[in-house]
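Give me the 3D structure for Glutamine--fructose-6-phosphate aminotransferase [isomerizing].
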Amino acid sequence: EAAEKGGYPHFVLKEIYEQPQALRRALAGRIREGRLHLSELESIQGLLAGIQRIVIVACGTSYHAGLLAKYVIEQWARIPVEAITAAEFRYCDPIVGPETLCIAVTQSGETADTLVGIRQARERGAPVIAITNVVASAITRLSDAVLYLQAGPEIGVVATKTFVTSVAVLYLLGLYLGQQQGRITSEQMREFVTALERLPEQIEHILTQASGPEDQIAPLAKRMSQVSSMMFIGRGVGFPTALEGALKLKEISYIHAEGFPAGELKHGSIALLDPDTPLFGIATASHVYEKVVSNIQEVRARDARVMVIATEGDEKIRQHAHDVLYVPATLEAFSPLLAIIPLQLFAYHAAVARGCNVDQPRNLAKSVTVE
Ligand code: G6P
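Predicted structure for Glutamine--fructose-6-phosphate aminotransferase [isomerizing] (371 residues):
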C-alpha cells in the first residue's frame, strides 16, 4: 500500500497533488490547436440541437460540480440549467422530455439515486449525457453519450481530482453548447481555451507553494483544527466553491462546516457568528468581488476570524482578513478550479491534525449503491 501511495502519507494527499496531471488528461484530445473537439458528442448532435433546457442530476461533490456548471452554461449557451441532487430529482415527478438534456455527473458511475433518477428521465424521452470516471460503469449503459473524466483511479473516499475534472468536463460541454448556439465567437473561444490550458500549471504553482517552506495552509489548518464550527461564503461561482470547501472539511475532519451564498448570510446564518466560529470567504477576482468584500466586512464586525481565498496581487483584501491564501489569476468562470485547491489542503491538514482517518472517513463510502 505504501508503494501505491507513491511516497505520500495518504491517498487523499496524493490525489490532491495529482490534480494538474488529472486535469491535463481530462483536457487531452478535447482541446487541440486552440479548438474544442468533443468527438463523444458527434453521434448525438441532432438530439442536442433541439434542447431547450438542461437538468444536471448528481450527488455530493458531483452535485457541487453541477451547481458550478449551471452558472457557466447559462452564461455561455443561454440555455436554462437546473442542478438538482439526485435523491430529490427522482421523487419530484420531474418535468423532462426530449427537449431537456439530462446530464448525470457521477465519478463512480454507480450511485443508486443518480441511476434511478436518470432511468426515469430516459423513460420520459430525455437525452442523457453521463460524466463519469469509471469506464463501463452502470451510468454509461443508461446514457446516449459518455464524457469520461480520465482522472485516473481515486482511492480516497473524498472526491478531489474527480471534482476538478468533473468541473472541467462540464465546462467543456458548456463551451460546446455555447458554440452550437452561436453564442461564443471564435475569439472568445480562444480566450477560454487559453485560460483552460493554463490551469494545470496554475494548480501546480499552488501545490508547489503549499509544499515549500513558505506554506501557510498547513499551519493555519492546524491552528483551526480544534474549532467546533466553520462557515464558508462566496457569490456566483464562489458559492458552490464555498459549499465544496465546507463539504471537504466536514467529510474528513468532522468539523461542522456550512457553505452559504455570501449575500444570504445576513438573513439568518449570521446569528451563528462569534469569535469562535472562523469563516472562509471566497474573494477571488470577479464581477461580485466588491459585494463579497462587503459581506466579509459584516463578518469582521462580529469579531469572527476571517480567512480569505484571493487572487494574487490583491493586497487590498489584507485589510479585511486575518489570513489570505492567494491563487493565481484566471477568468472568473475558472476561478473555482484554483480556489478549491487550498480548501482541499486545509481540510486535509485539519483532519490530520485531529488524527482522523482521512482516506476512509467514518460513515462514508466511495460509491453509495444503496438508495
Ligand atoms: C459518496 C461519496 C462522495 C461523492 C458522492 C457522489 O457519498 O462519499 O464523495 O461525492 O457519493 O458520488 P458519485 O460517484 O455519484 O460522484
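Residues 59-62, 106-108, 111, 114, 157-159, 364-368 surround 6-O-phosphono-alpha-D-glucopyranose (CB under 6 Å). Let me know if you want a second pass.
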